[in-house]
Amino acid sequence: MAQPMEALRAAAEEVSSSSTKQRISLFRHKLPPLVKDSELSPEVASSLVEIIFQTVNLYDDRPSRKSVGAMAYCAPQQLSQCLPKIVPKLTEVLTDTHPKVQTAGQTALQQVGSVIKNPEIATLVPTLLMSLNDPNAYTKHSLDILLQTTFINSIDAPSLALLVPIVHRGLRERGAETKKKAAQIVGNMCSLVTEPNDMIPYIGLLLPEVKKVLVDPIPEVRSVAARAIGSLIRGMGEDNFPDLVSWLMETLKSDNSNVERSGAAQGLSEVLAALGNEYFERILPEVIKNCSHQKASVRDGYLTLFKFLPRSLGVVFQNYLQIVLPAILDGLSDENESVRDAALCAGHVFVEHYATTSLPLLLPAIEDGIFSDNWRIRQSSIELLGDLLFKVAGTSGKAILEGGSDDEGSSTEAHGRAIIEKLGRDKRNEVLAAIYMVRSDVSLTVRQAALHVWKTIVANTPRTLKEIMPVLMNTLISSLASSSSERRQVAGRALGELVRKLGERVLPSIIPILSRGLKDPSASRRQGVCIGLSEVMASAGKHQLLHFMDELIPTIRTALCDSSQEVRESAGIAFSTLYKSAGMQAIDEIVPTLLRALEDDETSDTALDGLKQILSVRTSVVLPHILPKLVQPPLSAFNAHALGALAEVAGPGLSPHIGTVLPALVIAMADEDKEVQSSAKKAAETVVLVVDEEGTEILLSELLRGASDAQAVMRRGSCYLIGYVFKNSKLYLVDEAGDMISTLIVLLSDNDSATVSAAWEALGRVIGSVPKELLSSYIKVVRDAVSTARDKERRKRKGGSILIPGFCLPKALQPILPVFLQGLISGSAETREQAAQGLGELIDVTSEKTLREFVVPITGPLIRIIGDRFPWQVKAAILSTLSIMISKGGIALKPFLPQLQTTFVRCLQDSTRAVRASSAYALGKLSALSTRVDPLVSDLLAMLQGSDGGVRDAVLTALKGVIKHAGKSVSSAIRSRGCLLLRDILVLEDDDARSSAAKVIGLLSQYMEESEFTELLQTLIDYSTSSSWFIRHGSVLTFSSMSMHCPTLLCLSPLFTSLMDRLKDALKDDKFPIRETAAKAIGQLLLYRVQSEANPNALQLLQMLVLASQDDSSEVRRRSLSCIKAVAKANPSALMVNISYLGPAIAECLKDGSTPVRLSAERCALHVFQLTKGADNVQAAQKYITGLDARRLAKLPEESDESDNSDDEKRAS
């Protein structure tokens, strides 16, 4: 025997080391005879099978499969250990495309089947082989036959090798019936095998499929799979399934679906039953812990487990009910519906299994749930209690009771006797009392569930109520005293139902009991009494209650002043119910008592709260009785507090009384007593916030009236409340914001500084409440209000710069600035123009100190907008505002200097005159901030060379402004260049150009060196003799400008005599503009002389002016008189020396035919003769003018009312 064995081992080694073709040859010729003649060891058999199938995988060959079949005969014992590998491989080749390969596989399987020793399986081999050959057709048939077969003998390993592939196929079928049968066979296998370990090779194949079946959507399939897993654990032990329990518990936590969790729960229940009590006790704490897991899916899964444990553990599980029931009750109140359903289902199963055996354990837990604060627990507890009572009474409880009264049910006397027999009469009464009370639950679903249980187990409601009345009243009173508000409410409603059902039979006993209950030391019990009273009064008829008023009114009055707030709240509700029956009697007997109690320090707080409770239910009726008492001046701190508290309760009902309450509170807000101030302020804040949309108009009208009140305290307090309302109210007040903004801005010029501050703060709050996109719609409102405030301030100041006090506060522009900026940035062209103009007006009335911190946020947007393509009106408005900003902002604009300069220079070339003029004016002001003006002047000169018409005029205006504000900084080279260019303009025919050029040269001349000045003067003198009148005019215009800006240089110049000659000639020129300008120049020189040291040439200048006053042109005469007036105002004594020469000339002008000349002569005479300085001067003047004229002129004001005061006057002033 050893020799063939050695040959077989050698052949096996040769096969393992050969190529594919050599293996095939060995299988065909060498191995089959050796296999037939040898006895294989298990090791060699296993190795040989592995080699055979390696070759099968590489090359389909029939001899290879025949070798396997041959091994079945020669070594059945050893081959059985390899069958888990062999049969699946042979099954695979049954579907091969080659017929002979299929035949060889079938033959091999038949040879394997022929060694089966189990007679029952042996008879089924042909059927089983057909199932392996054609699983689609015969799997279900094979499973049916297997289930129908009665096994007397145990199943050996070869039998398992044929059975397992068929069962595995059945587990994978789609049909539920097939999967259920396959799972059932898997569960039966462990009890039929000779050795349970024979199943071990198939566990890895079957268990995954059984797990899949365990989570099948069909409950019956899951149930069979769960029992199969339990059988496997029970038959093979836990060690062979090391990960099964952990997998089941993880699946219980799955988020996928409750089907999977249900299957896992059922499987785990079977496994726990199989593993014994000790294992269950070890794992139970973890299960209970997971019932309160934070994830709903986990709670659902573990609560579902309790649904199956009673069925799998049986009577043993009732030992753990006390531990498990709290988790079930907690699950009944879960926020997740599936968790609640799982807990309720588990509870139903507990009741079904243990209603008779564990009633003392189940009933107390369910009774506690009936009175739970959570309505879901109450509902579930009622349903479970119903199941329990149905079980005890012997009824299904499934009858559908529709229609009829609440007293009609489906129970019988026998059911009632069964319940009494099982529970005892006392316990039965307690249970029925609880059910009756819960029939009035606040939750509809709880009420319906309780009513169903009651009607199912109670045959006669009136008789039963009579039987349980003592217990029921005790239950109701205890519940009315409960700390749970819902339980008190339920008890009250149940009490009301009793009154409705039994009426006058119970009132005489109930009301005294409730009245006595107010003396109970427990606040919760006193509150319960008030709730009970409300329900009793609401349920009883009005005529029934009239007999008990003497007892009800004092009881409620006492309750309204109770020390407990909860009691007072419930008493307020009871008062409302009482008022429905007693009407004004209730108010007349209760409210005055509470008002008197307000005056007592000990009872004031509770009495106030009592009033609040009454107001909360009967506002419109009670309020007129309370307010007159509380608003009587002087307002105390407590009364102010009371008003606020009552307003909070009265809410919108207070609106009609705003005019009564608010003025008193506003005045009290300024009280000297700090406590009164604080209380009044809080109360006023409450009052203004409780008003609803309908009362908004009343409230805001009252606040506006207060803001316009003559008393500063009223204005100040109203401003605060306006701001408070707009900041804190939830109402839409945007439509009313305009009136408030206007009023508050006007108040910024109030005489009371505290009111100004309050108005400013309120203004910020009002504008802050307006949505950003709507701000620009208030530009006109703000501008009009600023204008009104400015006019108001102007009337107070009577001259000087106008600043509004509110805009001199720190951060004063913060509230209003967003209105203009929003319009400037996102408004239409018209809106942008309005915004820019409004900003300018605002800046104009703001102090420089306040403006400083707003320079950047204002200037930036202005520069950005003016750079865009907007209409000229927008640009002109912005330029005007920037000019004001430059005047006020000063050095704070330094960062914007380059941008502003570039912007202004560019605008000089605009096509619109207004834009050019505004930019020229602004550029001149801006130059005062610059340290280097040469580049700017150079640019302007370059523009001047290449421009004409309006642009040239604008550039000249800009040059004039730059030289005026920064002429000292212009270098001599730039100055010389400018003079040359300007002299060319002097000879142009354009009047405006000549005039502007002359003014610029006059400004420049004051900074010239002597030689440069002399050269310029000589040139001008030469021009003055030109044959062209406009050249002569240009020279005289320049003389006039120079005499204003540098008269000293002119008078000290060696060419001064020539200048005087030219001016004298100019007075005789045939062109009146030249004569008028010459008169103006002479007047300025004369003014300079009389203001400086005495000079003999003064008379000459005066004579020249007198000569001009006799000129043919009224304009020249008027100009000369204006110059004389300016000299007289500056130094009257200098003219009095020559009054004999001057007086007749003035007297002559007083008779002039031209009205403007006469008016100028009057003003001139007033100052020359000093008519306002006394009667002596009037008398002296009569030497030259009539006495009537002298006295008339003496009454004129000293200040000139002429619209075009001369430059001479401005210099003199």
TrEMBL record:
Protein name per the record: Translational activator GCN1
Domain (TOG) ranges: 30-265, 580-799
InterPro entries: ARM-like (IPR011989), ARM-type_fold (IPR016024), HEAT_GCN1 (IPR057546), HEAT_type_2 (IPR021133), TOG (IPR034085)
Pfam families in alphabetical order: HEAT_EF3_GNC1, HEAT_EF3_N, HEAT_EZ, HEAT_GCN1, HEAT_GCN1_C
GO molecular function: protein kinase regulator activity
Keyword presence, Nucleotide-binding: no
Record flagged with keyword Repeat: yes
